[in-house]
Task: structure prediction
Amino acid sequence: MSTPSTRRSFRRHSVPLVLFGLVALAVLVVPPLVLGEVTTRTYAIAAAILIIAVGAAFPYAVLVALGTLPLLRAGVASFAAPQPEADGPHAFSAEATVRHVVAGVAYVLGAAAVGAIGLGAQIGLRSGPTATPTFLQPSFLYLGGLLVGGVFVALQLWRYDADAAVIDRRTALATVGLGVLIALAPAVAFWVFNGGV
Result:
């Protein structure tokens, strides 16, 4: 049985822990499932996909993290954990800014990584002998971004100590907006990789 302090600690760190777990799960489990083997070649292919995805998504991640600083400045929402006592984002400060930017970049790159692994899985599944027709397959690129963005929103809102009905509407809407920006990361990375910029 967990103690209240353990639950509170997990709540405060739930977003980075769960998102890191999603990325790790995607990177470690999906490539062997798709390629049918656990070899260094399998993980070398996954590493190459991740390097390309992170490289393509990094400018967008920085833009999102810095571009959403007005939300932190206004005290509306942040990528970082909320204040434990005040049920709101940390007051604007140098430390809060660094936490927001680092968390924002990390979450956007995590979404790009999961989306890229999903795209690699989709390509690998299409080329197999039992490939499903394209129109029946969801785009794993977009599903990866939606998964990470959705998990961010759900856990970030859960991190506030107040009941869901008490959370400020502006904070809830701004948090959903941050989640949408995270969810777009794989699509933006794919667009940049294809010469969109």
Remarks:
- The CA atoms of residues 34 and 129 lie 12 Å apart.
- Residues 4-193 form one domain.
